[in-house]
Design goal:
two-stranded antiparallel ribbon; 4 helices; globular; 2 strands; 5% strand; mainly alpha; 74 residues
C-alpha cells in the first residue's frame, strides 16, 4: 500500500526530475503551491483528488492493483 510518505517522495522526485519548481507543478495540477508543499512534506490531511491531479500533471495516472492477483482497475 502506498503511504503518504512514499507518495510525498514520488511527487518530489518526479517534480525534480522534470526541473520544475513547486509553483510550476502547482500551476500544471491546478492546485496551490502550498498544497504541493504539503504533499511533499507527507502531510496526512492531503485531499486524494488533488493528489491525483498532481500525479496527472507529472504525467502519471493512478490505478488500483489487486494485491491478491495483480488485476488492475482504472
Amino acid at each position: 500500500m502506498l503511504t503518504m510518505r512514499e507518495a510525498a517522495a514520488a511527487v518530489r522526485d518526479l517534480r525534480e526530475q522534470r526541473g520544475w519548481t513547486q509553483s510550476v507543478l502547482a500551476d500544471r495540477a491546478r492546485v496551490s503551491r502550498s498544497f504541493v508543499a504539503d504533499v511533499e512534506a507527507g502531510k496526512p490531511t492531503t485531499e486524494a483528488q488533488k493528489l491525483f491531479d498532481v500525479f496527472q500533471a507529472l504525467g502519471f495516472e493512478v490505478a488500483l492493483r489487486s494485491l491478491d492477483d495483480g488485476e488492475t482497475r482504472w
